Amino acid sequence: MIDGTLTFPYGWLLEQVLDGRKTASVLRPGERNYGVDPCDAEVRVDGVYEARGPDGDARCRIRVTRMQELRWDEPVPEALWRAEACADEAEFRRDHLEWFSHPSAEYRYRAFWFERVG
User: What integer pLDDT is reported at residue 35 of this predicted model?
Assistant: First the structure.
């Protein structure tokens, strides 16, 4: 059963999922799902989603295995920056500075880890 879709906003992110380098992602505050389809279901642990690229084509299925709420001023867990295909925490922060619109120290975001299931 498919619980919804996750539309990765950049093709290169989806390519990282397909080749196994990316096994986590993040949601901004208030985001239920970063897909573009308003019918997308909220991302939740054990949910199975069709992973799509910006062109809307389904490329694989993923199952969310874990979620965690984090603050920008806290250290980024190594498990997250590695699963985001980053070389280190500094790269994770550089990569997400614009995505999070230059966050304040108190900024909260949610991370989710996933595995390919199809």
Answer: 54
- Other Cβ atoms less than 10 A from the Cβ of 58: the count is 14
Cβ atoms of residues 24 and 112 within 8 Å: yes
Sheet holding 48-52, edge to edge: 4-7, 48-52, 58-71, 108-116, 24-27
Q: Check if the beta carbon of residue 72 is closer than 8 Å to that of residue 105.
A: yes
pTM above 0.70, yes or no: yes
What tokens appear for 88 in the block?
């280190």
Contact 62, 17 (CB under 8 A): yes
For the chain, counts of helices (H) and of strands (E):
3, 5
Q: For tokens 């880890």, name the residue.
A: 113
In the chain the beta strands, taken as DSSP E runs, fall at 4-7, 24-27, 48-52, 58-71, 108-116
